[in-house]
Amino acid sequence: MGSSPVDRHPALRRVRSLLLRSPAVVQAARTLYRWPPLTRTRPFKRFVMHRVDAAERALPELTPRVAIETVLTCNARCVMCVHSERRMVGVMDMGLFERLIEQLAAWGVRDVCLSIYGEPMVDRQWLDRVRIVRAAGLRYSFFSNASMLTEDVATAMLELGGWTEVNFSVNGFSKAVYEAVMPPLKRERVYGNLARFLELKLAKGGEQPKVTVSCIALRENVHELREYQRWWSAQPGVDRVSIGSRTDWLGELERTDAGQAVRNRLRVVAGDTWHTPCPTLWSSMFVYHDGRVSPCCEDAAARKLIVGDANAASLREIFHGPALRSLREQHAADRRREHAVCGSCHANWPWV
Fold first, then answer.
1. Can you give the C-alpha Rg of the chain in angstroms?
2. End-to-end alpha-carbon separation of the chain, Å?
3. Which run of H or E residues covers position 308?
4. 59-79, pLDDT tens digit by residue?
5. Fewer CB under 10 Å: which end of the chain, C or N?
6. What does the pLDDT look like over 132-185, one tens digit per residue?
7. Cα torsion for 100, 102, 105, 107, to the nearest 10°?
8. Phi, psi for 77 (deg, rounded to 5)
């Protein structure tokens, strides 16, 4: 299969890269990927398989997006999260963390996400980890509920620089809704932390992190989402407001009582939609707190899709290793449904 004009020309690749940074473009692509009349067409399948082929050819020179789970625990028990039903606790050994950052810097990876499935700032060594990242010349991003984003912590991170993005999970606007969805967090504290952080960001000036305030649409909060979006969009320093549907964490939420409230708003595709090869196999790595490595964030609750152990091999070896290579081959051969984990996943991430 030949390369496309976009793949052959650097200028066109740069245009595509810029488009992919647009939330509107990405959301439109995700919507199309959930539309069975399109996904059943031959042109759509040819397009996807062409993108798979291009990704495979680019693999030797590729540096993936990497997320590191510095800590697996959360101080919130959100109704839409498996954390609300389970005790999931773990902290990454600092020696392992330092080795991972050294490997990424040597590999040419420029950015790292410092969270996967928990609240990173509950880690007492959080700022030490940020300093290690910055000393290696890497930039960083993370997801947070902002409950522990004190003025001192925010100031320290802004001073260290290299903080590219942050996504604050704020799943309610009114006090009653927020505290019902994200117990035991208190709305006043979180909204106050964010207000002060935004002031500090604007006062600092220069290149500062892009701020997304995000919310999952739920039965409990759907009536106030319009007001939520209008209010947050008007806050100076907020770059994007995101309201999304949710995932069932590969069926794990179905096994909890919390799943009852959100089953009609799952981030899944229709059952008759073609399950495309997953682009994350060619683009991403997720390193859990214990060193196990997965190519998939949808499996962050069950943690069954493991392709290597960072305690025993380098991330580069795992990315190009036999386990992930075999999984890519299975997806590329349109046999995703045969896989024990991928076959039960209904999240179709777009190839764009």
1. 20
2. 17
3. strand 308-309
4. 999 999 999 999 999 999 998
5. N
6. 999 999 999 999 999 999 999 999 999 999 999 999 999 999 999 999 999 999
7. -70
8. -125, 65
